[in-house]
Amino acid sequence: MKVKWTMLGMVVFFLLSVVMTCCFIWQYRMPKMKKEMDVKEATTEEMCPHFPEPVPLKHPITSLRAALEKIDALLRSSVDTTKLPAISAIVVLNDSILWNGNFGKKNISDPSSPAPDEYTMYRIASVSKIFPTLMLYKLWEDGLVESLDDPLEKYMDNFAIKNPLGENSGTASSSVRTLGNRSPGLTLRRMASQLSGLPRRLRSTNLLWSGNTKAALKLLQDDVLVADPGTRCHYSNVAFSLLANILAQKVTGSDFESWVSDNILERLSMDDTGFNLTPNVQRRMAVGVYSNGQPAPLYNLGWYRPAGQMFSTAADMAKLMMTLLGGYGGTLLHQDTLNTMLTPVFRCHSNYFSNATGTPWEINEQFNYDVVRKDGDLDGYAATLSLVPRLKLGLVILMAGVRPADQDLVSQAYSYLIPAVESAFRDAQRTLRPPPNPAPYVGFFTYRNITFYEIKVDSDRVLIMQQFGPHVDTAVPAKYRTIQLDYLQDRVFRVVFQSPYPCKLKVNSASVSLEAQDRQLFNFYPFNKKGLFQLSTAVTVTEGDFQFSLESVKALGALMTGDDSSAEQALRLIEAKTAALCSHPALPEDFKPLCLRKDAGASLARLVFMATRYDSCEICEYPACTGC
After folding, report:
1. CATH for 70-164+184-426?
2. Which residues form the Beta-lactamase-related domain (predicted)?
């Protein structure tokens, strides 16, 4: 019995020892495992570019097709025979139509009614506000409006409204003009971006009010700004109607609707877009309905027409979207102007229905992209025109009926579209342009005799720049030491890295941003017959009463060999060689008058010293040098 207890104790002791040993090993390994995990996390690189460049795509693309099928199913399932009987939608990408869909019936009350198509007309309600904004930007681009930030009073000197919230407004009942230092200006840009502070509607009026701009200004004199201009997002139909009518009357000398028809609709061939609900237009329209299924009347807005009167088709809205994205022939506004128009202006407070406002946009973010949109709702109709400028992507949805309250069709559609389009652009092969004649660029180049490059031509005649030589940093992976050059125009190229690439590249102790360098411009400067870089013919170096071009000074320096002696000894040596230097056949002609002077040696020594001891950039910092 005693032996059995002894054996049992030994077994227990052995098991206890194994458990303690395992615990010790586990405890010992934990820090190392944690370090290994940290290293793995640290080595997970963030890849770039964050936003791919929109390029021409070769269709079909499986991911895009799947996204569009989901959008088709989304809109098809949103049709409701009572409150949303008709939907038309179009997606544009770059400068072409990617997809269009039409669902339901044009007239739900007619059993024989056909489905709508891309030429079916709908009221677009507040999407109409895009047109006063286009008018503002066109007049600004043409120089007829001096600044987008001109105060309204510049064009309407009898404008006044109470502003109790302004800095120097006095009492709440005092009438404060919005020009000068008395308050932040009520500017044209703020009027077009829901930052005017003007009320939503004129006091005691509705959308059918038939007054004119003079009567509107009189009503405003006894009204109050809802917010100090430029400080808060506040939706205002008054701002857009006032902006459109004043620009038309005071700047163009015409009426707003005629100007839009002549300068926008006609130029973009938007033949099925307009203001007047003629009998022919009404026959072509999808029949709008209220939520109970009752048909909505087609009435004309009064003074508020610029803010919401217009009708259009999905096909015409596609032309407008492509124009705003810089396509469709670029017939309306320059790209810089479009970029300004599509840029967010102000971040709104949390209770506003969008994150930011623009001219005239409501702007929200999806997948880190700004989605720029304009919504419109008017009895029996709803419409949205939306853009993702970074992807050159646009979507318009026109509805006869009530916009669904339980989901945002536009945001849901973009949840399918944006990842698919982004993926398609990332996977697309970039087409690089070769120079007309690559011969002048092929060869070996150096930067300050430290970094060396060879430029070659690949099989597609595109230039490739590759680093070589004794100072190649092996810490930089080989694929990032080879750079492609995309030809843009004479001697100007764009640097192109093979995507994807690390956003930041560790080189020894430094960190280099490859994304900042990708797509940078690369300029080849011309060389003269002697192989000298002609920095600028306007750069001159002054020596006493003489002035010499930078090219001549560099040529003078090229006649002298480098010397390792001190600066003082070098100057004396060059002075001693003055006669030989002045008689040298390669001496530039503009130094001959200097050679006739007694102190020519000292002057030449200073010039040679400058040319041989400094590179071109450092010479430009020399006090005697001008024109750099």
Report:
1. 3.40.710.10
2. 71-406
